[in-house]
Prior knowledge:
The chain is mostly beta strands. The protein is 8% helix and 32% strand. The strands form 2 sheets. The protein has a 3-stranded antiparallel sheet, with no helix packed on it. A hairpin with a 5-residue loop joins strand 1 (11-14) and strand 2.
Amino acid sequence: MSTRKRTLSGYKACKRCKTVMPEDAKQCPNCGSEEFVFKWRGMIVVIDPQKSCIAKRLGLEKPGIYALELVEE
Ligand SMILES: [Zn+2]
C-alpha cells in the first residue's frame, strides 16, 4: 500500500463536519462553518444515513459527500 498523500484538487472539506464542497464555496452548505481544510483523503457518499452503518460509525446524520480524513498541515 502506498503511503503517499493523495489529495483532490478543486474541492475542500469543512473542518467541522467534513462535508466536501467546491473550493469556491463561501460557506459549508451543511453546518454553515467558514473553516475549511484543503487537504483531505478519502470520500464517502451518504445517501441514507439511517440505513448506512458506515455513516452511523462516522456519526454522519445528514445525506451528503464527506471526507474520510482531514490532513493536517
Ligand atoms: Zn460543515
